[in-house]
Amino acid sequence: MNKKKVTFNDIAKYTNFSKTTISRYFNNPDSLTLENQEIIAQALIDLDYQENKLAKVLANGKSEFIGIIIPNLYLHYYAEMLNQLLSTYEKFGYKFLVFTGTGHEETERKYIQELLAYKIEGMIILSHTIPSRELASYNIPIVAIEREDQYINSVNTDNYMGAVQATSLLIKSGCQVLVHINSDVPEKVPSYKRILGFKDICQEQGILHELVLRDLGSSYDKSRKILLEIFNYIKDKYPGMKKGLFMANDTHANIMLNIIFNEYGTLPDDFCIVGFDDSPIASEAVIPISTVGQQIDKIAYEAAELLVKQMDERKKRRPEPQKELVHKNITPVLIRRQTTF
Amino acid sequence: MNKKKVTFNDIAKYTNFSKTTISRYFNNPDSLTLENQEIIAQALIDLDYQENKLAKVLANGKSEFIGIIIPNLYLHYYAEMLNQLLSTYEKFGYKFLVFTGTGHEETERKYIQELLAYKIEGMIILSHTIPSRELASYNIPIVAIEREDQYINSVNTDNYMGAVQATSLLIKSGCQVLVHINSDVPEKVPSYKRILGFKDICQEQGILHELVLRDLGSSYDKSRKILLEIFNYIKDKYPGMKKGLFMANDTHANIMLNIIFNEYGTLPDDFCIVGFDDSPIASEAVIPISTVGQQIDKIAYEAAELLVKQMDERKKRRPEPQKELVHKNITPVLIRRQTTF
DNA sequence: TTGTACGCGTTATCAC
DNA sequence: GTGATAACGCGTACAA
After folding, report:
1. Beta carbon of A21 within 7 Å of strand C?
2. In the predicted model, what is the mean pLDDT of chain B?
């Protein structure tokens, strides 16, 4: 019952080989005769051998662990990103040690220490809490996703392009005034470029536009309250004009749509809405919402690949330190649904 | 730059203690004089020591790893469950090694092997793929969440009670005919009890009711198509009656609500809807949906606690094997919003 | 209170 | 092709 684990030693005795040969069977089987390979294979079955990767790691230093610190899994964006990151296991074979961020620097530092204690080979970070300057100092391969990334590698959505796509769609839909509603994003955060893109295109096209930048709350009810104010403000300020609303994300887009629906019982012709992310909520809204789709699968894959490259480099005899930071941009895709024309 | 890691040996030399004393500093500091504790503490800083938990595990066998196999993170229910499971780290200190299930037995078996190779101390399983009979044979502490659990411990929502709450609410809301719309859940799955609970209460109260059990599709569009058929069927079959719809989950409840909204521009008085799960979609729908809230945080916590108990037991000198399986039920909470009265 | 010696299960370095 | 033997970094009797 309480099988004490069988080790290379047991297999060696059972087969009259040495531990070394057993090890070779796993790491370099071709160096054994086919015959002997089969003998060992049979022994593994007879003894019901269970490999121990921890011992392996201690001996060769390759943990095959990647650490992840992600803010939460409440937002679909993060959940799906983690989903896609985890699924890169099939491709790269790395296992993931996951912590959800707390927003407290000290706690997240503790997490990082824990990750380092388990000898992670690299780290993917989505949490915003710890400055990239500090992260870089840990001297371990790191890739950031959609966060401040001044001193570390990163993979992000091409936020500027996304804003351009959304804004252009609203213009094509015949909107006469464009409003971008967002929180007051810091300039260093990648998504700040959405604001830039919106402004640039509006100015380029010479279209009337307005930026509404304020804290939009962190719960549905709060956001709804604030967005209701904004809705009334816009409605009153631009009467009779066709209004195009570029929302910061699909959650807000959905709230705005619900507000309008509860006001009019439908989406009137003089309102257009575009969201961001292509979350399920966008397609599951009372009317499917046009949105800018982040290619989460691609972002995750690129992040993993970028990280793997660095980790592989480290395993070489004479690793070349990275010359310069890599910041990859993944182009988003515009998804036209029923809130635009 | 490429600091070769400092070990207990280095610290020992630096402080003129032995490795053992250094080890004791970490595991039983009280056995050292305060003075010496401080000497070592300073040495750790001077040398920038980085603990190696893998070596520790190899030596004492306690990996502090829990393995998780979860179907996906696309559904909010799973994402939030993982979120809550991960957050038990603060309480119990166990780290999580996470795999997302594929639905393929062979692949998930491979995952389990990988987890075992990393010497996980226990496992939490949400994936449905591998029968509990087989899981039990791995002879490692296991807790299942909301899946077939005949041969293993589990923590589930009290699905029967949830159905009772939902059904009762519809009756109280004055509905004259009740319809439960669900997929054809196998009897061994915990959520089958929702169907039971619905039937029992309806019969007990002698109210007209109907069960619509069929595959509801796996995408929004497919589900919507099927639910539209069902909606039309119900509308035609029970004209003039106040209809109470008990949906299998909030996603379906939201789709049904959208169908009704697109038909009538509002939710007419002769339709009531209750969902299940308390997903964000329920509160973010065009009209906030009444639902049965699964207490995901509690389920996750109870699961972790149950697992920790078993793992602790194993660490005792003479571990007592578990006498009988534990199946915990967590009572759901009824959330009344605007789709019922 | 502190130290010695060995074990944990695997890989790496030499030999043969 | 195969085998000793020494790492890897830490825990733990057992001794002192």
Report:
1. no
2. 94
